[in-house]
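User: ok so my PI wants both of these folded by tonight, can you help

Assistant: No problem, let's get them done. Here's the first:
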Amino acid sequence: MRYNYQGTGVAMITPFHANGEIDFNALEKLVHFLAENGIDYLVVLGTTGESATLNHDEKQRIFSFVAGANNGRLPLVAGIGGNDTRGVIDDIKSYDLDGYNSVLSVAPYYNKPSQEGLFQHYRAISEASSLPVMMYNVPGRTGMNVTAETTLRIAEECKNIFATKEASGNFEQIMEIIKYKPAGFEVISGDDAITLPMMACGANGVISVVANAYPRIFSDMVRQCLAGDYAAARKLHYQLTDIIPTLFAEGSPAGVKAYMQELGLCDSHTRLPVVGVSLPLLKKIKSFAEVLKKQYVF
């Protein structure tokens, strides 16, 4: 049975040691931290998880490890996407996704397919996947927008695709999708900074980057939105509006990993071509982290 993805999901980072190997101790700590601080579901190996720099074996180890550490507490979403439709289908079929509830699949990048190509890509994945699929539109990374018209066509015709993680930032497009989507099709924010206004327009929630570091404050904000208490939600929203731009100023997930190191959650190591934040940005991150640090128990 498909899970209803209301609330706050986290696009989990992948912690690394200084030598570039996966830090499974920190990964386990992160799973517990998120589960204990208001998060509704976990997204494993999305963009924020640096999936592009992990090989097939490493990805399988992470999928299995997170499922074990989670132990059924939260729904799990597996990030499996790419710009080769056959390759994505092969990956979905080849990974052991025991314990996972659905797949998040980013729109094809680099190829710049037509809207018809995007539709056919998602239709093929919908038909091949044994798990429900959430599409992911992030034109800032893929170089190609999945239009409202194409998204609605996918929602109507690809019955195994139940949601879109929408990160176009285009509110006309977002509102058109929400207004005309079929019943049961979910629209989920893929952009922390505009989650509150997206939810005011009718989005179901968010898959968040900042919630890796500040899960309680962000998930509380989302819950206030779901309850219709936007006055309370705004107070929490504005506590994070200075932080969110610093997450992406020099490449993600370098920014959020810097916050997480300040909070003692993991080291800030990344894999090339992503590098750590510069000293000026780190100084700013340290000052913002200090303001919020005492509000959380780790």
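One down. Here's the second:
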Amino acid sequence: MKKFDLQGTGVALVTPFHKQGNIDFTSLGKLIEHTIQGGVDYLVCLGTTSEYPTLSQQEQLAVIDFTIEQVEGRVPIVLGMGCNDTRSLVEKIRHTDFSSIAAILSVAPYYNKPNQKGLYAHFKAVAEASDVPVILYNVPGRCGVNMAAETTLQLARDFSNIIGIKEASGNMAQCMEILMNKPQGFALVSGEDALVLPLIALGGQGVISVTANAYPDLMSELVNHSLKTNMKKAKAVHEKLLPFSNAIFDEGNPVGIKSALETMGICSSYVRQPLAKASKQLQTKLQTIISNIQENK
């Protein structure tokens, strides 16, 4: 079993598109370079931010292959692998080549709304099928169901290859329960960019970030200061990034971050349906925030 250190800053990469709707691999390469040069510790390929449900299987494989080739082993790659059909997800895991993949990030089953017993059974099957470490992903706002702290902790105790959780519930009490009772070696990372500082202060290990697509340097700086308990410096970076981290979610993800990346000249803001491009109001808001960050960098 490979080892993977979840500590630090991970970036949930967007998938850039051309106006015609096909994948813009040139811009994807530019984004990967931007994030690596900005100091992120690992990349998350085909996470929620990638719009992977709108990508065909052939496109998903092309994105994975391109990312592996572009990264050239400079940072670890975490692969998003989630589905609301446990059986098909297990089959997919068993037939995936993980030779260049450090770990998988597996989101809670969406739409079905399983109970806690169902969530446990789902991730038990994932853990037993995977030859690489598994990171759980709890995001009730997207999945329609919250994985309780008790379920997370039981999975962490029962399966040594479940190494951590991306917590995006926004429930600080739940996060604290996990942090207080987790087994040694199990990591909690923030799935909410706005909560990175308080979660690390409570014992979290880092973040899997959307903001880091645009500001990998500042997000890495925030995480590193927080991990070193240099809270004065961490707070200064947190306050600089907070308006941006909030605004990019005003009209859904990755609508906001893609609009920001277009303003910054990294990739276009095109998204695939059913998503729609950012409103003029949000574009203007983000442009103002980006200008303010640039002036104070």
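The domain at 8-226 is CATH 3.20.20.70 (TIM Barrel). The chain has one domain: 8-226. Good luck tonight!
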